[in-house]
């Protein structure tokens, strides 16, 4: 579980936001008191009277930990602090001085049923020493419940890379904002449930976790064209195009056409088919006034005809979703080709496709933003899906069902996105809506589903957005 629609800040951005609060006259002690109190409120609920071991590190995460320990002791719990060393200075040192309960060394700490992890937060700069990582892991494994302050200790804040963090943390209280580490890679599974504490730091961020979208019920004047006509181009593997088309139909598009060399095939009968002879024919068809959005790439193939179809799609002045084979055909020239196009374009690569198209450095968010500088909105799929727009906005969905890793689910997402952009909307918003619906349909489908069954869950997922 991750708080929806929550701001995501890097370590540096968090520190800048914190500095702005200090500049308004709030002291570091006050902020640490708020942080510790917020964590303690959650901790006391989860502890339910059990004895608590509070792990305190040398920095401000450790300072927060001493505040938590004090509140829990005041709440009547049996609290022992296990310190990895003396707090360095400033507020952390002062919170240490206010702790009047028992303290032991981290290395000799006993296993207790509740552990509060306040060793390191956003200040981790390198991998934890093996001895610290081992003790931390042992104490977490021995506990019935572990709550991490801000982050499980030993995670790279900005990339989510693991730097010695334990497995088995049950919940994490993110202070002030989410950090990339809560949502990238396997960060969420290391954090457990992520709770967000407002500690009075005003936060502005163009990066947010994906939230449930708001969809509109059709009104009395709505008709099939006003709900968007989506054209799905099919190719060598017609099933992929059909899946995309059916996903668009099941997520609110008013009219869906499947266009390609051989669009005939099994139901649905409501899917309108259009036979396309060659790339010129495709270009003429896509230029038609009624078409609001084009989906091109699922099952397209990679032969000459596919290349010509891609060129025809790129030349059309309509919102365009490129997926699957279209991305492979773009290859390393993706950035230049996308930059040359004026009409809006969305691309939906998985990790392998993304790496074949773009170089890039830094975290998954950084690399996706670099790709979006091409002018495309990039939906970089995975267990963590990162959506970045050319305007710098980012949306991240963490914790999607691992059962989505099956053939055809990407085609479903491409069709969903086609339906969203066919109804208007630009940049990351329709992409976030499509990704949310996709993830929710997967939850509803349960385990071991296949892509057709994902489509079947889409109306139910949509109904939750009305
Ligand atoms: N979000 C907010 O605005 C607030 C956050 N608070 C809390 O503060 C921490 C961040 O505190 P900070 O002091 O910057 O960093 P940490 O406590 O996470 O850790 C820094 C100390 O740890 C040492 N360090 C770093 N990496 C390692 C390592 N691999 N092994 C051993 N020691 C390490 C580092 O020392 P150096 O050796 O690098 O000099 C520091 O001593 C944030 O996460 C919140 O919990 C505020 O309390 C409220 C406002
Ligand atoms: K921590």
From TrEMBL:
GO BP terms: metabolite repair; nicotinamide nucleotide metabolic process
Start and end residues of each YjeF C-terminal domain: 207-465
Pfam families cross-referenced by the UniProt entry: Carb_kinase (PF01256), YjeF_N (PF03853)
Binding site for (6S)-NADPHX: 60-64, 121-127, 150, 240, 299, 350, 411
Xref: InterPro entries: Carbohydrate_kinase_pred_CS, CARKD, Nnr, Ribokinase-like, YjeF_N_dom, YjeF_N_dom_sf
Residue numbers binding K(+): 61, 117, 153
Keyword Lyase included in the entry's annotation: yes
Domain YjeF N-terminal: 14-207
Molecular functions per Gene Ontology: ADP-dependent NAD(P)H-hydrate dehydratase activity; ATP binding; kinase activity; metal ion binding; NAD(P)HX epimerase activity
EC number: 4.2.1.136, 5.1.99.6
Reaction catalyzed: (6R)-NADHX = (6S)-NADHX; (6S)-NADHX + ADP = AMP + phosphate + NADH + H(+); (6R)-NADPHX = (6S)-NADPHX; (6S)-NADPHX + ADP = AMP + phosphate + NADPH + H(+)
Subunit annotation: Homotetramer.
Name this polypeptide is given: Bifunctional NAD(P)H-hydrate repair enzyme
Source organism (scientific name): Sphingomonas trueperi
Gene name of the record: nnrE
């Amino acid at each position: 579980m991750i708080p929806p629609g929550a701001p995501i800040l890097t370590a540096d951005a968090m520190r800048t936001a914190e500095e702005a609060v200090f500049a308004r006259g709030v002291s570091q002690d006050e902020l640490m008191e708020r942080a510790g109190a917020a964590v303690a409120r959650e901790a006391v609920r989860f502890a339910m009277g059990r004895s608590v071991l509070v792990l305190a590190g040398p920095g401000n995460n450790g300072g927060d930990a001493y505040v938590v320990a004090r509140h829990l002791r005041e709440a009547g719990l049996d609290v022992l602090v296990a310190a990895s060393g003396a707090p360095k200075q400033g507020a952390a040192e002062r919170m240490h001085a206010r702790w009047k309960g028992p303290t032991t060394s981290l290395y000799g700490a006993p296993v207790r049923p509740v552990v509060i992890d306040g060793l390191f937060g956003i200040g981790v700069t390198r991998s934890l020493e093996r001895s610290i990582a081992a003790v931390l892991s042992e104490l977490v494994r021995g506990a019935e419940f572990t709550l991490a302050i801000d982050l499980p200790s030993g995670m790279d804040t900005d990339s989510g890379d693991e730097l010695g963090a334990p497995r088995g943390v049950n919940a994490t209280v993110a202070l002030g904002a989410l950090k990339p580490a809560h949502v990238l890679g396997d960060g969420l599974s290391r954090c457990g449930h992520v709770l967000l504490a407002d500690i009075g730091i005003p936060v502005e961020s163009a990066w947010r976790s994906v939230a449930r979208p708001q969809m509109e019920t059709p009104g009395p004047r709505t008709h099939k064209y006003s709900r968007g006509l989506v054209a799905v181009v099919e190719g060598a593997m017609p099933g992929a195009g059909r899946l995309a088309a059916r996903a668009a139909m099941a997520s609110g598009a008013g009219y869906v056409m499947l266009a390609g060399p051989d669009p005939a095939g099994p139901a649905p009968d409501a899917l309108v088919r259009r036979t396309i002879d060659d790339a010129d024919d495709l270009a003429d068809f896509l230029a038609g006034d009624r078409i609001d959005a084009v989906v091109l790439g699922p099952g397209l193939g990679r032969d000459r005809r596919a290349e010509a179809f891609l060129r025809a799609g790129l030349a059309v002045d309509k919102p365009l979703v490129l997926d699957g084979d279209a991305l492979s055909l773009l290859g390393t020239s993706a950035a230049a080709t996308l930059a040359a196009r004026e009409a809006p374009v969305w691309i939906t690569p998985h990790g392998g496709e993304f790496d074949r198209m773009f170089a890039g450095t830094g975290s998954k968010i950084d690399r996706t933003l670099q790709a979006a500088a091409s002018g495309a909105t990039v939906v970089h799929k995975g267990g963590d899906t990162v959506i970045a727009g050319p305007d710098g906005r980012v949306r991240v969905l963490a914790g999607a069902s691992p059962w989505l890793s099956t053939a055809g689910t990407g085609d479903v997402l491409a069709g969903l996105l086609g339906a969203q952009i066919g109804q208007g909307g630009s940049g990351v918003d329709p992409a976030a809506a499509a990704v949310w619906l996709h993830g929710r349909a997967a939850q509803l489908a349960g385990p071991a589903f296949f892509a057709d069954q994902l489509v079947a869950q889409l109306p139910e997922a949509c109904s939750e957005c009305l």
